[in-house]
Amino acid sequence: MNTSVTSPRRTLSASPFLAAARGERPERLPVWFMRQAGRSLPEYRALRADTSMMQACLDPEMTCEITLQPVRRHGVDAAILFSDIVVPLYAAGIGVDIVPGTGPVVASPVRTAADVENLPMLAAAQVAPVTDAVALLLRELGETPLIGFAGAPFTLASYLVEGGPSRNHERTKALMYSAPEVWHALMAHLAQLTATFLEAQVAAGVDAVQLFDSWAGALSERDYRRFVLPHSASVLDRIRDVPRFHFGVGTGSLLGAMAEAGADVIGVDWRTPLDVGSQRAGGLPVQGNLDPAVLFADVDSVAEETRRIVAEGRRAPSHVFNLGHGVLPGTDPDMITRTVDLVHSL
Question: What is the reported pTM?
Answer without folding.
Answer: 0.95
